[in-house]
Amino acid sequence: MFELILCSLLTILPDYLFRRYVQGKRFGKEITFYSVWYELRWGITGCLMLTVALITTIFYFHPSTTSAALFYRTVPILPETSGRVAEVDIGYSAPVTKGEVIFRLDSSKQTAALETAKRKIAEVDAQLVAAEADVVKSEAQIQEARSAYQQAKDELDVKRDLQRRNPGIVPQRDIEKLQVLVDQRQAGIDAATAIKQSATLRVSTLLPAEKASAEAAQAQAQVDLDKTVIRAGVNGRVEQFFLRVGDVVNPLMRPAGVLIPEGAGQQSLQAGFGQIEAQVLKEGMVAEAACISKPWVIIPMVITSVQDYIAAGQFRGGEQLVEAQNIARPGTILVFLEPLYKGGLDGVTAGSSCIVNAYTSNHEIISAKDTSTGQAFVLHAIDTVGLVHALLLRIQALLLPIKTLVLSGH
């Protein structure tokens, strides 16, 4: 309607003034309701053509959409293990800080496993003390075996010396017995040394490895026990938290609740524009937004990112071929916008629906030296008609409460 009124001022009004003051025709005489089309045919035709051209130019070079919202990501409150709720530390709705306990699961099984792991470590420590005592004992056995071996060898050496000086004075059988005894005592030394090596290896390698395994089992048991305490991963707010003591939660099928991170929905606004405007939407474009949760306020925005893919065209591989005509409606170009000024989205409720206008700016092209006068004039006209869209957005923002509260029937 606004475009039609504007265009009529440039077409129908001059045509009427020409016929009224130049041709002398008067409204109600020569110009009547029945002869309006014939008398003002040029102005009406020009008005309609100019209106269509103006609307096309405005909506193409300065795209607008009502499919915009402050989307935000929620964090599901999920334990890493299944279990029955033993304690709930927050209510239906409450703010939480990172690391704060939300609820606890029954931990009797995990506590028993942790206690078993601690007892295993204590058992290994006791075995380590006993093994160290065995090392000392084996050293004493080696010393005893060496003394016995030395005694037997000394006696064998004496009798061999006597035999060498006075052959026949010592029976050969005694010398052989002493040799067997020396060999036996040497075997005793070897056995005691082997026992010491085994005890030393047990102290230095086997028992430390068993202790490390027991400590790892204790750490695992502690981790399993910690998993029964569910804490907030980020600062935020828990909403609609209906979990109660005795409920069974499952990380795959039954979440416990929803955590909304602090600042969610206050960083950027997402808007879906028509596919025909894909060549116009660029990063850095200035935009404006009017949100339902904050009426009568125009928020200056800037486009920070334009998604290169249209969600409506995605598919999952399966056993059926994709049929293009099954797409119910064309998808939109997803655009991410951020406030032009700090705190621009303050007061806008996360998830709020908005109306967004984006404005094309050809200032750099117009300022270029190689831009012709005609091209500069056209680009100036394109930038100028953006004021019409800006005015329409302000009219929409002004009428938004009336439309929502009165005309919607609520």
Structure keywords:
18% strand; 14 strands; Elongation Factor Tu (Ef-tu), domain 3; alpha+beta; OB fold (Dihydrolipoamide Acetyltransferase, E2P); 4 domains; 48% helix; six-stranded antiparallel beta barrel; 410 residues
Write a short abstract of this structure.
By secondary structure, the protein is of the alpha+beta class.
- Overall structural domain count: 4
In the CATH scheme, the class of the largest domain would be Mainly Beta
CATH-assigned homologous superfamily of the largest domain: Efflux pump adaptor protein, beta barrel domain
Summarize the main sheet: 6 strands, antiparallel, barrel
Strand percentage lies at 15-25%
Could you state the oligomeric state of the chains shown?
single chain
Ranges with pLDDT <50 over ≥5 residues? none
Coiled coil: 114-162
Protein name: Secretion protein HlyD
Organism: Bradyrhizobium macuxiense
Keywords: Coiled coil
